Amino acid sequence: MKSRLLASAILPAFAAGIFACDDATGNDDQEWEAALSAAAEIPAPTGSPTAGGTAEIELNGRTLSVLVSVTGTLTSDVTMAHIHGPATTTATAGIVLDFVPAMQAIIAAGTRTGTMVSASYDLDALPVSATGVLRINPDTLIAFMNTGRGYVNVHTQTNAAGELRGQITRD
Asked: From the centroid of its chain, how far is CA 10?
């Protein structure tokens, strides 16, 4: 009898905890954003950049959708964009999700403003590789974004190390 009473008290609470869970494993839909600016870039870019931008990142199930847009005009043609981590706003880190394969038409066109990245990634289908699109475990990527330790940056010909950067935060 005590076991049934205990189970009837614990199981609903346990189930509520599971369904309300919004953790770093990416089991629930989540949204993040980043405000991109030259002022946030490390090291500081050259050429007096005036462009800004946004990154919108959304996780639905295990599909990560990314939209990176630049307002104003970059100092030169875009060459690449990525998510980096783990890093705070005052540090740099390696690439953890590379957008370049999804940017080929934008790069070839010499784009300097507008949509730079519009792509979706099936996190369970992407192989993890030191030089691939996804370079770390997908759950680690999600944890970086959930804890503010990931950032997006946009690179240009003039600023090969990066012209725009924005720390990823929960939306």
From this structure: 37
pLDDT, tens digit (0-9, with 9 covering 90-100), for 44-87: 999 999 999 999 999 999 999 999 999 999 999 999 999 999 99
Confirm if 59 and 124 have CB atoms less than 8 A apart. Answer: no
Tell me, yes or no, whether 161 lies in a domain. yes
- DSSP conformational letter for 90: T
> Is 3 a domain residue?
no
pTM: 0.84
Q: Tally the domains of the chain.
A: 1
Q: How far apart are CA 146 and CA 123, in angstroms?
A: 16
d(CA 2, CA 94): 54
Phi–psi pair at 144, nearest 5 degrees = -60, -45
DSSP 104-153: HHHHHTT--SEEEEEEEEETTTSPB-TTSSB-S-HHHHHHHHHTT--EEE
